[in-house]
Amino acid sequence: MHATVRRYEGVDTSRTNELTSKVNETLLPKLSNVPGFKGYYLLDAGNGVLSSVSLFQTSEQAEESANLVAKWISDENLNTAIPNPPKITSGEIVAHSDHLVAVA
User: Fold this and answer.
1) Where in the chain are the domains?
2) Residue of 7, 88, 84 whose CA lies nearest to 43
3) Assigned CATH for 2-92
4) Percent of the chain surpassing pLDDT 70
5) Are the C-beta atoms of residues 12 and 49 closer than 8 Å to each other?
6) What residues are paired with 4 via a beta bridge?
7) How far is 104 from 84, CA to CA, in rounded Å?
């Protein structure tokens, strides 16, 4: 399995709720249709920092998702809300646990 972590800095904090809604309403349905999709998580770290973690079966599928996300940002007119390109860490998952903790 392959994971990609994107760290977006300088995000317009007045638009965080809008971004979160659009991720849930329009981005996640698109990502879930990419072959090999295994999961997506968005984290609000505060102070204009959002990070995402996406999981795909192969690196090629993860790359396809990167192109999809870049197009989605443009199509949804979010370039001013997310003004900087993300810092990206991507690679093969070499250790994991399937134990999930319930979010309260």
Assistant:
1) 2-92
2) 7
3) 3.30.70.100
4) 94
5) no
6) 54, 90
7) 32
Gap between the Cα atoms of 42 and 65, Å rounded: 15
Mean of pLDDT over the chain: 92
Cβ pair 59, 2 in contact under 8 A: yes
- Kindly report, residue by residue over 7-38, the tens digit of the pLDDT: 999 999 999 999 999 999 999 999 999 999 99
CA distances to 79, 91, 100 from 103, in Å? 31, 26, 9
What is the distance between the alpha carbons of residues 76 and 64, in angstroms, rounded to a whole number?
18
The one-letter code for the residue type at 55 is L
Residue 86 φ/ψ, nearest 5 degrees: -75, 155
Q: What is the pTM of this model?
A: 0.85
